[in-house]
Design goal:
Helices cover 88% and strands 0% of the residues. It is mainly α. Helix 8 (215-224) crosses helix 9 (226-240). The longest helix has 70 residues, at 54-123. The protein is rod-shaped, with a radius of gyration of 59 Å.
Length: 241
């Protein structure tokens, strides 16, 4: 509504009041005083009403102030909680990274432990190996099995010698003595079998089958002592010629 329209409405209302006063036959001055008295009365009543509600208004103000304080504290708590969440998130990420690092170290240790265990198994000289090579007859299956173990350890010792592994030096002498003993027993075994061919009316099939059964013995001789291997081969050729 425009300013001019408000003025027209106010003038129209005043005209209606004046018309009503004139129609009732009242004196306009008296009517004006009556209106002023009523306005003053309304104003006084409003003041009294405000005064009577002052306590409630003050209480309401106090409550609003208290709410403002509570909201401010909640805001601080939320900000602190948000900061704590950020810190916790950072700590979780750190723990996750530490967990990954620990798993990696564990896998590395397990890998090293497995390799070390295999290294020890390949290098250690057991009591069974020693007693079998020293005391068990060459014709026994157990001697063949332990000779294969000895052959593996000798080859492994050669590999570690190239790498200058200090642990290899600790068993070098023991393996060397076992090798010499095994070569001597195998040489004696083969020469004994070959001599059986020299007997009159000898059944060649029996000693030949025995020699074929233990062909690994000759392979072992070729690897660790070529002179003895050549001696056995030449003795066999001379005997069978």
């Amino acid at each position: 509504m425009s300013h001019s329209e408000e003025e027209n409405l106010q003038d129209h209302l005043q005209e209606d009041i004046v018309k009503e006063a004139l129609a009732s036959g009242q004196d306009l001055r008296e009517y004006s005083k009556q209106v002023e008295v009523e306005l003053a009365s309304c104003e006084q009543a409003s003041i009294q009403d405000y005064i009577s509600q002052a306590g409630n208004i003050a209480q309401l103000h106090t409550q609003i102030s208290s709410c403002d304080g509570i909201l401010a504290r909640m805001e601080n708590l939320l900000l602190s909680f948000q900061t704590d969440l950020g810190s916790i998130s950072s700590e979780i990420l750190t723990l996750q990274q530490e967990s990954v690092d620990m798993n990696l170290r564990l896998k590395n240790r397990q890998s090293v432990r497995g390799e070390l265990s295999q290294f020890v198994d390949d290098l250690v000289v057991t009591e069974q190996l020693i007693t079998t090579i020293m005391d068990t007859p060459v014709s026994e299956q157990q001697f063949l099995e332990q000779l294969q173990v000895l052959d593996h350890k000798i080859e492994f010792l050669k590999e570690q010698s190239f790498r200058e592994a200090r642990a290899a030096q600790d068993v070098k002498d023991v393996l060397e003595k076992l090798k010499i003993k095994a070569v001597a027993k195998i040489r004696e075994y083969f020469l004994l079998k070959i001599n059986q061919f020299k007997k009159p009316l000898a059944n060649y099939q029996i000693p030949q089958n025995a020699m074929l059964r233990f062909k690994f013995y000759f392979q072992f001789l070729q690897k660790v002592n070529r002179e003895v291997a050549s001696e056995v081969r030449e003795e066999y050729i001379d005997t069978m010629s």
